[in-house]
């Protein structure tokens, strides 16, 4: 049985992502490592503190010890740590948002990135720009920070979170061909945002699991071939 270890910096995405795994990869062993102190440290610092990077790398190594075939880094705010760890960890590490970024670049020239935290917005913008450069394409990036939405969500006001996110999406719509949701936890708003703006909306949970599936299929094929 193949094993995927998903590493979380907060609680919110674990259950929705588990459902995606059950749908797309029902036969794998899924192990979750959740340290909800990490995102709080990132938000307070406004960047990724060294202690957060160190803890994440420790979790990657623990995932290896657990027999993981693939590690899924589920938090876009710390995606840069996953990139830096590639090569030092003996198994593939998937950034949940990597294929989403690649799809945005492949299909659209004007890309609006929506986020509720600056710590997630900036890494996602950088990732999309890097994917554009790798593809030899020029893209126009639009920043859409829904200020106050994250605080509303953690204060138990999801309706306020959704309202602020929707307002931000509407402001970004005219300058964009597609809306990209920087945080996996925003995926539940995908359909509502598409209906309200008339623009395609990309989110990371499903494409992240698709990326994991592609790697697992390749690993299985290699083992079968050998």
UniProtKB/TrEMBL annotation:
Highest taxon of the lineage: Bacteria
Pfam families: Asp_Glu_race
Sample GO molecular function, one term: amino-acid racemase activity
Similarity annotation: Belongs to the HyuE racemase family.
Record's protein name: Asp/Glu/hydantoin racemase
């Amino acid at each position: 049985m193949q094993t995927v270890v998903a590493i979380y910096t907060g609680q919110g995405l674990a259950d929705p992502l588990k459902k995606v795994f059950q749908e797309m990869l029902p036969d794998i062993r899924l192990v979750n490592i959740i340290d909800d102190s990490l995102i709080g440290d990132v938000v307070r610092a406004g960047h990724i503190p060294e202690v957060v990077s160190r803890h994440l790398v420790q979790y990657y190594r623990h995932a290896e010890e657990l027999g993981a075939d693939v590690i899924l880094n589920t938090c876009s705010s710390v995606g840069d740590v996953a990139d830096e760890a590639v090569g030092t960890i003996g198994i593939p590490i998937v950034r949940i948002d990597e294929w989403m970024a690649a799809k945005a670049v492949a299909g659209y020239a004007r890309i609006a990135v929506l986020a509720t935290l600056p710590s997630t917005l900036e890494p996602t913008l950088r990732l999309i720009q890097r994917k554009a450069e790798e593809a030899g394409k020029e893209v126009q990036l639009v920043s859409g920070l829904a200020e106050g939405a994250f605080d509303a969500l953690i204060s138990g006001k999801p309706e306020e979170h959704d309202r602020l996110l929707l307002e931000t999406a509407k402001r970004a719509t005219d300058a964009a061909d597609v809306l990209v949701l920087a945080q996996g936890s925003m995926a539940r708003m995908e359909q509502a945002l598409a209906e309200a703006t008339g623009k395609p909306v990309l989110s990371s949970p499903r494409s992240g699991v698709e990326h994991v599936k592609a790697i697992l299929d390749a690993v299985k094929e290699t083992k079968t071939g050998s």
